[in-house]
Amino acid sequence: MINRKSSKLVLILKGTANRSRFFTFPAYICSMTFDVKTIGIAGAGSMGSGIAQVCAQAGFQVVLYDISSEMLTKAEKGIAAGFQFLVSKAKLTSKEQEAALGRITFSNQISSLKAELIIEAVIEKLEVKHQFFTEVAAINPPTTILASNTSSIPITQIAAKIPNPERFLGIHFFNPAPVMKLVEIIKGESTSDEVSDFCFDLISGMGKTCVIAKDAPGFIVNRVARHYYVEGLKLLEENVASLEDIDGLMENFGFKMGPFRLMDLIGVDTNLSVTKSMYQLFHFDSKFRPNRIQQQKVDAGKFGRKSGEGFYRYE
After folding, report:
1. Which residue in 194, 14, 20 sits closest to 116, CA to CA?
2. Whether this model's pTM surpasses 0.90
3. Nearest CA to 33 among 136, 113, 142?
4. Could you tell me the CA-to-CA distances from 163 to 1, 111, 120, 152 in Å, in that order?
5. Which of 1, 174, 179, 310 is a plausible cystine mate for 304, CB 3.0–4.6 Å?
């Protein structure tokens, strides 16, 4: 909507019925109008389901898509448990819990993934992301904002095969999304300023702390944090200390979790995938080299909390 008096583009973000947020940008920058009512999320793993919970709690209609009906069932139970936890802590009422759950649609049909904003949280493989966004772009208008929750793949690489790349960006939540406040907003080479600014305000309105990051492998947090995992694994590999001692030391030093407990929470497989991606993107720099101990865990299906065992066992 253009405000003729001020020659500004007014972006309207609609969440809960009693709360609208307005953002303005110079009219000459862009002719697009953003009116976000529904947010589509692809991938019903721990990250995708966590993002769905955050968006639904903020008052948006949500479509959570996954090809696996089993994953969707698991996600629905996990989201319900997440809301119930908030109720038990008096951070949400039972009525608000019911309303939030009612705003989420679970689907294994990609044709149902029609929204004003779509966030992808699928496997960290470029070809998979390209295929997904090609299909989604074909069933949505060019005004739909497309975003990836990738942890390490450059946004410009993903956007390369997407129509209208100016509406594509990275929106990187951290796991668990309902708990972690930080979200990286990543601009690709073609991402327009108004799209990144709009998404910054949208996600901030969900109670998150956003930071704009330039498009580089690992962005900010994963590039810095990668050595926390890599060096922890090297210490274990060289028998400098046990994983329990390494974790205990770092936690006593002030970190909320040691590297091994954190890898189990994130997913040992997911963490390894990011390390491999960054190793390749940094032209096989040895400081990002994946560790054989972590690879063995993945080969054995020991993915961490989600599989019941990783570096630790979980009941």
Report:
1. 14
2. no
3. 142
4. 24, 18, 16, 22
5. 310
For residues 183 and 103, give the distance between their C-alpha atoms in angstroms, rounded to a whole number.
23
Backbone torsions φ then ψ of 258, nearest 5 degrees: -75, 170
Task: Domains for the chain: give ranges and CATH numbers.
Answer: 2-214 (3.40.50.720), 222-306 (1.10.1040.50)
The CA distance from 315 to 295, in Å, is: 23
Helices (H) and strands (E) in the chain, counts: 11, 12
Residue from 289, 154, 156 nearest 219 by CA:
154
- Note the pLDDT tens digit of each residue in 253-299: 999 999 999 999 989 999 999 999 999 999 999 999 999 999 999 99
How remote is the C-alpha of 8 from its chain's centroid? 31
HSE of 70, CA atoms in CB hemisphere, 13 A: 0
Closest CA to 22 of 33, 8, 12, 37: 12
Q: Are 246 and 236 in contact (CB under 8 A)?
A: yes
What's the angle, vertex CA 47, arms to CA 249 and CA 59, rounded to 5?
A: 120
Q: Tell me: the pLDDT tens digits for 107-156? A: 999 999 999 999 999 988 899 999 999 999 999 999 999 999 999 899 99
The answer to whether 167 and 192 are in contact (CB under 8 A) is yes
The secondary structure of residue 310, as a DSSP letter, is: S
- With CA atoms as reference, report the closest residue to 86 among 33, 50, 62: 50
Give the pairing type, strands 8-14 and 20-26.
antiparallel
Q: Which residues contact residue 94 at a Cβ distance below 8 angstroms, ignoring those fewer than 6 apart?
A: 87
